Amino acid sequence: MKSVRLRLLLLALLPLSVVMPLLLVVAMARWNADYDNVLIVNVESDLKIADQYLRQLQANTGDDLAAIASSARFAKVLRAPLQDQLRFLDQQRQSLQLDFLYYLPLRNIDREARRWPVIDRAAQGRLASEIDIFSAADLDEISADLRDRARISLIETEATAPTTRPAEDRGMVIHSAAPVTNNGSEGVLVAGRLLNRDLDFIDTINALVYLGDSHRISRKGTATLFLEDTRISTNVRLFEDVRALGTRVSQAVRDAVLGEGQTWLDRAFVVNDWYISGYLPLTDSFGRRVGMLYVGFLEAPFAAAKLSAYWTVVLSFLSVLLLSAPLFLWLAKGIFAPLEQMSHTMARVERGDLTARNGNVGRRDEIGQVAAHLDSLLDQVQDRDQKLRDWAEELNARVDQRTAELRAANEKLEATYKQLVMSEKLASIGEITAGVAHEINNPVAVIQGNVDVMRMTLGAAAEEVDTELALIDDQILRISAIVGKLLQFARPTEFGTFEESLDLAPVVSDCLVLVDHVITKQAITVEKQFAATPPVRIDPGELQQVVINLILNAAQAMEGCGRLLLALRPMERDGVSGACLEVSDTGPGIAAEDLPSVFNPFYTTKLGEGTGLGLSISQTLIQRAGGVISADTRIENGEIKGAVFSIWLPAVKAGD
Fold first, then answer.
1. What pLDDT is stored for residue 496 in this prediction?
2. How many Å apart are CA 396 and CA 406, to the nearest integer?
3. Which of 572, 46, 29 lies closest to 313 in space, CA to CA?
4. Which of 570, 602, 603, 605 has the alpha carbon at shortest distance from 588?
5. Which of 80, 71, 77, 72 shows the shortest CA–CA distance to 89?
6. Strands laid side by side in the 639-650 sheet
7. Do residues 111 and 120 lie in contact, with contact meaning Cβ atoms separated by under 8 Å?
8. Angle between helices 300-331 and 20-69 (to 10 degrees)
9. Low-confidence ranges of the chain (pLDDT < 50)
10. How far apart are CA 286 and CA 131, in angstroms?
């Protein structure tokens, strides 16, 4: 293919497709450079116009000031009272569109002359008009309004020099001074125009430069006055109706113009778009570079025009190429047709069509032999592919069958395992229940019998220890009840309940008495926060069993020291009123992954010490009374501060 098709095409199309594009690239590069130079020349001319206007404005301000200083009317006013002088100067200031105008007698000139060269030259009899930078304090001395007008908040701008200033509070002023020598009244007439926010000034420059533009492409021009690198007067838009006052020029432009005193003539990124830009450094009366005058026009229309020209040339070239290529292809059709047929066949094979063949290409030379050989190879590939597909289908069927069998076996195994676990748990519960009933009931019966013998033996003397003997009787009954509850947990349907309406506070207090021997052996502080709660219905023995279990668990968790808090409060749950008991400790708490399992039978963290039935039995007893028991970890300031168990029981309904 390379030796026939591509070489013939390259030989025919090389001059047109390679040499001509290279010539076009060179020509377009040269044209692009010339085009950019023209744009730079245009912006340079625009910058000269803007500079001339600024200089003319300075000169006109000085000439107007000199005319006032030498006028007979002003000489007359100088002999008038001070109020008339001020009124006259204010009228002249307004008519000349100045921001300040004042007269300095010769006796007051020394201090001002030392501060401002323009006043110093006027004191020497020469008219002076320059640009000066007034500090905020200088402006405030003249007028608080000027100080406020000059202040411009800085807006963060990309690629600018670092600064910590929040605002530009200095003012750029056209500062003029004219000598006054009228009938012995010697002094200096001083005037100034603040250029900060002077939009008339900047819009006039923009109009002079860009209105009535004769360019074929409409130039969207802008003009800006900078105090150092900050825009203090501009028609560049930050948004549609917001001028970009307070934005700053890039550090590269600042360094070139203000740092080195160069005139910048190049493309530059201005606020939010690229402009063909010109920046001219401005100097004050001290000869320092204090700002810049900028004019520029949007680059986008000219870039679009260049792009359009590029595409015109490219499309023209492609049109010539497209018209010429078919001619060469038609001439070489006798060679290309069989090759294209083979290429088409291979493409169909790549897409999965193994029945594609070249057939008779109408040639008996090397190309025809290659086409026939390719068809023979495709026959072999198709035959082997069919055998592979048959084997794959058979293998997939076997895999599906074995997968289904394995899935069914796995499901049976999982079900059997669950049944086994449940059987083991039930067997353990039955064994524990029988052992407890046998091992506890017998000694309890002996204790009860001996208590009765003691009463009989002591007779009337038994009254002195009647309270202690009664307490033993109560605890023997409680032991019997606990054994009964273990049996009830294993076979709950064989036992009844003995619920009654009761107040939680006394029951909880009794529980503390019963576990006092455990609490007092440890450095555990017990706190009670009991609020009035409605009565609830539950077997008091069952409730006592649950509370004692929770208190003992908390004491074990705190390992000898800590704070045990018992809190009672009324609480509604799902619209049902009730009472809530919280038992909280300052132990290590419960791990998040263990919380869902704490009420499961045989779950314990005290391996080798407990059976893991306490919380499970407690949950059964509370749920039987219609309540809810829950566990959680108490967290304060992101740290675990212990565990808290909550028991909620519904209030007794009226009439129960």
1. 47
2. 15
3. 29
4. 605
5. 77
6. 523-530, 561-573, 576-584, 639-650, 628-636
7. no
8. 170
9. 1-2, 492-493, 496, 608
10. 9
